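Closing statement on the iron/sulfur cluster sub-project.
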Amino acid sequence: MTDLLKTPASWPQPILGRAGAKDPTDLDAAVKAGAFEGLRIAVRLAPPGVIAEIRAAGLRGRGGAGFLTADKWHLAATTPADRRYVVANGYGADPATRTDATLIERDPYAVIEGVAIAAWAIGADTAIIAVRATETEAIRRLEAALGAAEDAGFIGGDVLDTGHELNVEVRPVQGAYMLGEETVLLKALEGRRGQPEQRPPHPAERGLFGRPTVVQNVQTLALAAWIMHEGAAKFRTIGTPDAPGTILVHVRGTGGAGVAEVPLGTTIRTILGLVGATTRTGPPPKALLVGGPSGGILPADLLDTPYTFDDLRTAGAHIGSGSIVATAANADVLELAELLTRFCSTEACGKTIPCRIGTRRLEEIAVRINAGTPRPTDADLIGDLSADIVASGLCDHERLATLPMTSVMRYFRPELDAKLQPAAEQAAR
Ligand SMILES: Cc1cc2nc3c(=O)[nH]c(=O)nc-3n(C[C@H](O)[C@H](O)[C@H](O)COP(=O)(O)O)c2cc1C
Ligand code: SF4
């Protein structure tokens, strides 16, 4: 299991508040600590009341893109259909980040309660919790918790004596990076080979088996449960006005690593301080990789950037998988960018040609720059290619896959120019 980092006592913990339980599958203990109180309140409200509370909370999805959760729930609830589904995305596409698996292992009931509330809000009778197949302990605990929750009537044939039926299944899934993308995940759950689909229609309108489907990251669902219990107003006291609440971050620095629950709006400096990366004496990190394999590489001058969806996007990074890595003081950012771009080009599904070919060309440029054989036009080529890729993709991967190289262009230009020097000299001859 991944270590939980110690956070200041003043930081609220709507996601991992019960994470210290001796046995996270012990339903009685979880209920004593508040589990399923949110669901009890939700079923007393009509579904529109539940969606209104989630809207008032300003909850945004924790799977990376930060969409407003209430918009999805409203669309799914109001699209005419014979059936609706809830899919909890616990895949954790970034193989090095264990935020979602950590939540499932430490408090499976928080996810199950969120699933039950979402299903009640949109009128779904079936829900699937997708978990990476290799996360065997998370799957074991979730299955045990689902059995106990069904026996107690929180899910199953008659949820809390309302007459509402909800069958919830854990589905171990295994595949490539793109499997975390919602339209790919939905196809995999249908037993089909997946590549992203054009949107609209969004899954909330036409998703699993063509029916309205709310696809929600597991953290988003745990937060929905907390909001129903504690109220939207209290949720809004955490985080920032545009990004209320907390989020799980997998933090790594030279001094250590672990998962922490962090109020949105906390600076990257403070978050890295949880592993001593910005507080110990010694050289500060040279760069910050924020967002996982398709993350932005930011300079240490941006340590005071608030960790929110919009601030990170402005800085050229993104929340992505919830990973923040502080590099060593002597890291070679171009080698890092090469490694990440190789990952992104290998994982691009190939459906859209500019993404498939463009990310491969970006990788080749990085390879030759690092090998000391750059071409005079390489800097321009990185800029032009990245702009072409971003303009023409089918899913978010095209935009994100260019971030490692474009952030080096933006923030580490002297280092790039030094590596481009052989080409400049050759051109001058
Ligand atoms: C390449 C790629 C990988 C993704 N991987 C994940 C993932 O592992 N888990 C996740 O929740 N969302 C992932 N997403 C985002 C999902 O497509 C989707 O937006 C999310 O599951 C919706 O839930 P949310 O609104 O609660 O964030 C990924 C997106 C892309 C483009
Ligand atoms: S943008 Fe890239 S990853 Fe997304 S569908 Fe197109 S080729 Fe696949």
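The chain has three domains: 27-236, 246-326, 333-428. With this model delivered, the sub-project is considered complete and its resources will be redirected to Aim 3.
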